[in-house]
Amino acid sequence: MKFTCEKQILSNALTIVSRAIPVKTTMSILQCVLVEANAEGIRFTANDMELGIETVVEGQVEEPGIVAIEEKIFHEIVRKLPEGEIRLTVDPSLKVTIQSGRSKFNLIGRSTEEFTYLPTVERIDSIRMTQLSLKNVISQTIFSTKNDETNKMMGGELIQIDQDTFKMVSLDGHRISIRRLHLASSYAPRKVVVPAKTLDDISRILPDSAENQVSLTFTGKHMVFDFDRTTVISRLLEGEFYAIDQMLSSDFETKMTINRHEFLDCLDRTTLLVKENDKKPVILNITDEQMSLKIRSTIGSFDEEIEVEKQGKDLMIGFNPRFLLDAMRAIEDETVDFYFVNPKAPCFIKDTEDKYIYLILPVNFTVVD
Amino acid sequence: MKFTCEKQILSNALTIVSRAIPVKTTMSILQCVLVEANAEGIRFTANDMELGIETVVEGQVEEPGIVAIEEKIFHEIVRKLPEGEIRLTVDPSLKVTIQSGRSKFNLIGRSTEEFTYLPTVERIDSIRMTQLSLKNVISQTIFSTKNDETNKMMGGELIQIDQDTFKMVSLDGHRISIRRLHLASSYAPRKVVVPAKTLDDISRILPDSAENQVSLTFTGKHMVFDFDRTTVISRLLEGEFYAIDQMLSSDFETKMTINRHEFLDCLDRTTLLVKENDKKPVILNITDEQMSLKIRSTIGSFDEEIEVEKQGKDLMIGFNPRFLLDAMRAIEDETVDFYFVNPKAPCFIKDTEDKYIYLILPVNFTVVD
Question: Interface pTM (ipTM) of the complex?
Answer without folding.
Answer: 0.87
